[in-house]
Amino acid sequence: MMHRVHVVQIVAVAVFLGSVAIAQQPGPASTAAARPSAKPAVAAPASPYRPAATVQDLMAGIIDPASKVVFKAVSTEETPNGIVETAPKNDEEWAVVRKNALMMVEGANLLMMPGRHIAPPAAAHKHNEGELAPAEIEVRVAKDRAAWNRFAVGFRNAALLSLKAAEGRKTDDFGPAGEAVDNACESCHLRFWYPDQEELLKNAPKP
Hints:
two-stranded antiparallel ribbon, globular, mainly alpha, 8 helices, Four Helix Bundle (Hemerythrin (Met), subunit A), 2 strands
C-alpha cells in the first residue's frame, strides 16, 4: 500500500512540474517578439565608375586611331607596277598591330561604362549634316541602353577577331575581321546617329 502511495506522489509531482513548464513557455505574441527583426533593406552601392571621357573622346582618342592601324596593317593594292601586298614584317610590327587591336577591344568595354556622355556640353548640339546632335543621341541611348550595350558587345566581338588575327599572324583573317568591325559600327550608327531612318532600321542587323 505504501508503495502505491509513493508512486502516486511521484506521478503527481511530474504532472505539476509539467504544468509549470507549459505555463512558463512564451505565447505566440512573446515568441514573435523574441524573434530577431527583419534586417533593414540595404541600399545598392553607388557605382564606382566616374567616366571623364565622352564617347566622342573615346572614338577620337582610342578607337578610331587604333582601328586605322589595324586596317592598314594588312592590305593588297593594285598599282601600275603590279600588286603590292602589305603586312607586318617582324615581331615589333606585329606587336604594334596587336596593341591597337587590344585598344579596340577595351574601347568597346569603355563604351558600355554607365554614366558616360556622348559629347561634352559645349559640343552637345554640334553635329555633321545628316546626323543627330550628341544631345539627341544621348536621349536615344538612355531610352534603349540595352541595345547600346549589345551593339558595343558586337563591336568588341569583331575587334576580338582582329586581335586573334594579329596574335596568330594570320593575314588572311584581317579582311573578314575588318568587315565585321565595319558592320558593327554602322549598325550602331544606324540605330543611334541618323535621323528619319525607319526603313534602314527595319533592314539593319539586329543587335
